[in-house]
Amino acid sequence: MRLYNVAVVGATGLVGRKMIQILEERNFPVGNIKFFASERSIGKEVEFGGIIHPVEQLTERSFAGIEIALFSAGATVSKEMAPHAVKAGTLVIDNSSAFRMDPNVPLVVPEVNRKMIFHHKGIIANPNCSTIQMVVALKPLHDRWTVKRVIVSTYQSVTGAGQRGLTQLEHELANRPVEKKFAHQIAMNIVPHVDVFHPDGYTKEEHKMVNETKKIMGDDAIKVNATCVRVPVYGGHSESINVELEKKFEMHEVREALANAEGIVVQDDPTTSLYPMPVAAWDRDEVFVGRIRRDETIASGLTLWVVSDNLRKGAATNAVQIAEEWIKGR
After folding, report:
1. Which residue in 53, 142, 207, 237 is the catalytic one?
2. Of these four, 19, 161, 277, 281, which has the most CB atoms within 10 Å of its CB?
3. What sections of the chain are H helices per DSSP?
């Protein structure tokens, strides 16, 4: 198998470290590999394939000879450095919000719109973690019955806010002083505030779910209303999703469509208390769907409970899957 020269940008962050782990787990065909981070991470080391690698400072000249770069260093770094990578001939798979809504940049979840990988101009965007797991669950429903409207409420873990979010929860639980990542205490609390608020009263995270869903699904007619909430969970995002479909359906058909869909595991047996939970989804790459029930208040309504590991399928695994699909299609 041909090997590829790979770089991980933002290698010392939560998602960057997870990307490195998943590259190893999935035996990605790595030739040479480099790890980049901000100046404050210089001097740190990363182990990959049994070899210790230094963490290097990212510069405009860092991408010489690099064929694939996985970016997870924030939108500011991506906007500044991704164009230099593209100029060097590198395929950039970017986990930030920098390029997601750029009409010239594919926004990809392989289970949903794999073919868009091959329409890139040097950059492929990785969607928001909450959006990824939702569209994986919506895809088989949309293909058969056409999704008309979605109302989603999220229950997002602190790791979705990076290391500072995780540190805040850990320190609050230990009654230790900490610089707050969230607007309020997160331990023993629920905060209905993910990312910054827009003038319309919705947060940036909620707008991401609306706009990214339409782009990934390739259907601007889908109506989405989102409420995004932070909960004191270490890892794994949960979502309550209410879907209005265009066509009538039978419940056994819905369960069958979900069970047979790529990337989905159905956990739906209330009699044995079987339903998706973050503790069971942690360190897994699938999207778990349960609490599947008809919404009797509308003609063709359905309610789902969807859970996935936000650092894996919601970020790092999805990015590595994109790279794998790109290699397959070359």
Report:
1. 237
2. 19
3. 14-25, 75-87, 110-113, 129-145, 162-173, 204-217, 251-259, 278-281, 317-328
- Average pLDDT along the chain: 97
For the segment 123-169, what is each residue's pLDDT rounded down to a tens digit? 999 999 999 999 999 999 999 999 999 999 999 999 999 999 999 99
* Region(s) of the chain under CATH 3.30.360.10: 130-310
Instruction: Return d(Cα 105, Cα 323) in angstroms, integer.
Output: 15
| Sequence ranges of the chain with CATH classification 3.40.50.720 | 4-127+315-328
Establish whether 119 is a catalytic residue: no
264 in Cβ contact with 137 (< 8 Å):
yes
| Known active-site residue 129 | yes
Written as six digits, the tokens of 107 are 């926004």
Q: Which of 129, 142, 207, 228 is catalytic?
A: 129
Residue with tokens 């209330």: 270
pLDDT in tens, 250-309: 999 999 999 999 999 999 999 999 999 999 999 999 999 999 999 999 999 999 999 999
Number of neighbours of residue 104 by Cβ within 10 angstroms: 10
Cβ neighbour number for residue 103 with a 10 Å cutoff? 6
Take residue 282 and report the two structure tokens written for it. Answer: 């942690």
130-310 has CATH 3.30.360.10 classification: yes
Helix (DSSP H) and strand (DSSP E) numbers for the chain: 9, 13
Which amino acid, one-letter code, is at 81?
A: M
Domain 4-127+315-328 is classified in which CATH homologous superfamily?
Answer: NAD(P)-binding Rossmann-like Domain (3.40.50.720)
